[in-house]
């Protein structure tokens, strides 16, 4: 009885700590932000006032901003799906030299800082860029292309992870009965992929609708979306009430995208015939050339070309020649640059803050993953577990700009603490940890849920306490997945820009904030220094991401000294409850989650 009481207390504490953190630094700021739009100061003190709603939503600019947000997200989603489908086929259904390496490299675009990608496309299509003749500078086309840069790999890995386990006997049967290659794919394979495609599209739309850095750099005021408009109202006009009311539009867009994603995910959790293991990929043939051509052009033109333009233009000096002058300016900035300190100082600060944020996200993520990986017998506890899971995923659906704005409003001596956190650097790693937390949970949770319950039961039967079971079974199973989660958290925190832009203090710029200020300043040499700083940030993030990708497991869990596969026990379609969605139809127990599992809300 005493051991049971200690176990209950331990699990309660494991759930209470993340809940308290989320309540204080996420729910309270977001709800306070919403309340700001409905409260006004009068002679008798604060009073309820909804007059801001018709004032803001009746504005012609508000309607234009909302329409632009939907248009940008909708077009980018269509482009991402159309280009991601051939990439999924090439990477997950065909076998060619370097395929595994290419899979890992294509993870990098999804986690590159938005400010780096925005600057890269600006260097490509902006004044002086190699594609300036297209006239895409400050255009919708540039924004859509940059958003597709992030999300084509997401679609490829999400749909590809599902596609590689679909039984292809139906398509082969259609071919035997006389259907051509295209017709067999359209009538058999595409309907099977439809749930995964639809869910991926809903998720891509969510990410595009809440994009900040890309739209801020490439769109400016003319192509503002809801995110950048909230930032403009707050920073430039100090219109906190208008920004709070406008955030309601964003909540509606995000809520609709999450609802559609959840419905499509549930509709896709049906009896699709999947293989216990991925079928052997085939060698490319003549019929595969169109898909390979589209995939190759996507990699070269959409991903490689902007990065190459960024690197080359960072090496150009004022005279048009090649030099390292822009990189030298990072250490000793010339007079007139909008820097409070050398960019090298910003690099060091960003790395330290990202390290703290990653450790904080890991500590909370491990606790959350342990709680969510249990399988309680009580229906009430199962329902509570589902609500807890949804709460943990909320930061992925609420924009970083909204989060940073809310923290700025509420962290003036919170809970009576005699410290104004708004003047402290502590808020930045807290905000970054909130952004990275869902990624950490989505990496660790499928691994823990893939552990055979018989192992825990056997250990408990032999007298092991709950803590001993965790230490001897669960923690060792995390293994390299914990390193993968730490790498993702560090990379996401290092490039975080939305919330940090609100919370950064004068004299302590992080690297993404410094880049945005450099590329937007008219001082001579400022743009070149911004390009060089973007290359440094992109290289740091890519190095961390590639290292994290190498930490994934690549084998089977060994039980009783012999390798044994558990089949499709971890994904929702395979019968488990990984919560990862369509992107994780089934894994061998102990395998680290694929990248697509991280993305599902």
UniProtKB/TrEMBL annotation:
The answer to whether keyword Membrane applies is yes
Please give, as recorded in its UniProt entry, the membrane topology of this protein.
Multi-pass membrane protein
- The record places domain ABC transmembrane type-1 at 66-259, 347-548
Top-level taxon of the source organism: Bacteria
Q: Which UniProt keywords apply?
A: Cell inner membrane, Cell membrane, Membrane, Transmembrane, Transmembrane helix, Transport
Chain segments carrying region Disordered: 562-590
Compartment annotation: Cell inner membrane; Cell membrane
Matches recorded under Pfam families: BPD_transp_1
Is Transmembrane helix tagged as a keyword? yes
Chief subcellular location: membrane
Q: What residue intervals traverse the membrane?
A: 70-92, 104-126, 138-156, 193-220, 240-260, 289-312, 343-372, 392-412, 424-445, 457-478, 527-548
**Which residues fall in a compositionally biased region of kind Gly residues?**
568-584
State the family named in the UniProt similarity comment for this chain: Belongs to the binding-protein-dependent transport system permease family.
Q: What is this protein called?
A: Iron ABC transporter permease
Q: Which organism is it from?
A: Leucobacter allii
């Amino acid at each position: 009885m005493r051991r049971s009481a200690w176990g209950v207390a331990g699990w309660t504490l494991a759930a209470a700590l993340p809940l308290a953190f989320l309540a204080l630094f996420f729910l309270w700021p977001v709800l306070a932000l919403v309340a700001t739009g409905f409260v006004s100061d009068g002679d008798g003190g604060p009073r309820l006032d909804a007059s801001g709603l018709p004032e803001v939503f009746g504005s012609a600019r508000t309607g234009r901003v909302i329409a632009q947000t939907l248009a940008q997200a909708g077009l980018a989603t269509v482009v991402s799906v159309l280009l991601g489908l051939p990439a999924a086929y090439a990477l997950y259904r065909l076998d060619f030299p370097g395929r595994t390496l290419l899979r890992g490299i294509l993870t990098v675009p999804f986690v590159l800082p938005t400010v780096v990608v925005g600057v890269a496309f600006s260097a490509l299509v902006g004044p002086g860029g190699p594609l300036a003749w297209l006239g895409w500078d400050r255009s919708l086309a540039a924004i859509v292309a940059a958003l597709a840069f992030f999300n084509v790999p997401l679609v490829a890995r999400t749909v590809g992870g599902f596609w590689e386990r679909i039984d292809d006997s139906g398509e082969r049967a259609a071919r035997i009965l006389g259907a051509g290659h295209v017709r067999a794919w359209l009538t058999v394979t595409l309907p099977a992929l439809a749930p995964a495609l639809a869910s991926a599209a809903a998720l891509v739309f969510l990410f595009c609708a809440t994009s900040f850095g890309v739209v801020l750099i490439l769109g400016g005021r003319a192509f503002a979306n809801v995110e950048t408009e909230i930032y403009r109202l707050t920073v430039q006009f100090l219109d906190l009430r208008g920004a709070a009311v406008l955030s309601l539009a964003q909540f509606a867009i995000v809520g609709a995208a999450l609802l559609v994603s959840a419905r499509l995910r549930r509709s896709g959790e049906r009896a699709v015939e999947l293989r216990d293991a991925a079928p052997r990929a085939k060698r490319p043939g003549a019929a595969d050339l169109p898909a390979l051509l589209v995939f190759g052009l996507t990699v070269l033109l959409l991903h490689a070309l902007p990065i190459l333009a960024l690197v080359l233009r960072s090496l150009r000096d004022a005279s048009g020649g090649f030099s390292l002058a822009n990189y030298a300016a990072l250490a000793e900035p010339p007079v007139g640059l909008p820097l409070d300190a050398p960019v090298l100082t910003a690099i060091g600060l960003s790395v330290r803050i990202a390290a703290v944020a990653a450790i904080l996200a890991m500590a909370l993520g491990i606790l959350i993953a342990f709680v969510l990986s249990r399988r309680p017998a009580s229906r009430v506890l199962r329902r509570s577990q589902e609500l807890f899971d949804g709460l943990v995923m909320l930061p992925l659906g609420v924009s970083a700009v909204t989060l940073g704005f809310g923290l700025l409003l509420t962290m003036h001596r919170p809970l009576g603490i005699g410290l104004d956190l708004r003047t402290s650097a502590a808020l930045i790693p807290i905000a970054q940890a909130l952004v990275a937390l869902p990624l950490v949970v989505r990496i660790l949770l499928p691994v823990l849920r893939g552990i055979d319950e018989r192992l825990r039961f056997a250990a408990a039967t032999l007298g092991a306490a709950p803590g001993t079971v965790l230490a001897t079974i669960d923690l060792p199973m995390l293994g390299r997945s914990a390193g993968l989660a730490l790498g993702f958290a560090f990379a996401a925190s290092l490039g975080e820009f939305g919330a940090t832009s609100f919370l950064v203090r004068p004299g302590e710029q992080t690297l993404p904030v410094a880049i945005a200020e450099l590329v937007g300043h008219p001082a001579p040499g400022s743009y070149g220094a911004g390009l060089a700083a973007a290359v440094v940030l992109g290289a740091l993030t890519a190095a961390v991401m590639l290292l994290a990708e190498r930490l994934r497991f690549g084998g089977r869990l060994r039980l009783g000294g012999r390798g044994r596969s558990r089949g499709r026990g971890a994904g929702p379609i395979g019968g488990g409850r990984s919560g990862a969605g369509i992107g994780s139809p089934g894994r061998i127990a102990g395998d680290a989650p694929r990248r697509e599992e991280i993305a599902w809300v």
